[in-house]
User: Fold this.
Amino acid sequence: MQKKKQKPKSDSVRPTARKEKTAEPTANQFVKELTALKTKADLEKNSRFLHNGSKANLCLGVRMGKIFETAKKYKNMPLEEIAVLIKNPYYEIRMGAVSILDFLARDKKSDEKFKKRLFDLYIKNHKHINNWDLVDRSAGHVIGRFLFDKSREPLYKLARSKNPMERRTAIVSTSYFIMNKDPNETFRIAEILKDDRDETVQKAVGSWVREAGKKDKPRLLDFLNRHSATLPRITLRAAIERLDAKEKEFYLRSNKN
Assistant:
């Protein structure tokens, strides 16, 4: 009599493994994680740094290194969630948001279409990028890198804005051009901003023409020869910082401000 084949026991059968989709990080998760890192000492330090009691610049009290570390962990956050972060009233949260944008703009996996979305998000939400270091943390790659092989007209629109942080973005974005041996745009935008009344813009103009001058010193000296007499003192001092002592003395004496 033929024996019936026994069915394998249920625990001897390996079930087919299912790949579960990893949940995308959210703005709420980022805020919760960053808030857990706040300290009283960093709150006092950041509050003094911002010296702005408006509701648009509230402080959590998280040090920069921790913000950057957390932002790097959230690189896979959807752009819609980053947009939520960038509107947050807390300074450190917004710093986290622009840091994520910067990491994404630098990422070799980001294609042109995606970089355009980063660019658009930054420009659309610029009113929330309201401190000089928020601009400096992200404009070079999010704006400058994207525009490097395209029309630079958006920079001139920013340079003529009534918003000083947008004007600062115009000059700071050219850092990517300078890195790639193209200092021309820096000097052209400096011509527009050379008489700016906002100190954060004045300092940026001086600092960026100084850096552009490392690539093209004759162009820097030409800029100084034409404008040193009327440049804001802050701009001039930043621009001549790397010149020799005699050159510094010459331009400082020529300045009427």
Notes: The two ends are 112 Å apart (CA to CA). The longest helix spans residues 199-215. The CA atoms of residues 85 and 93 lie 6 Å apart.
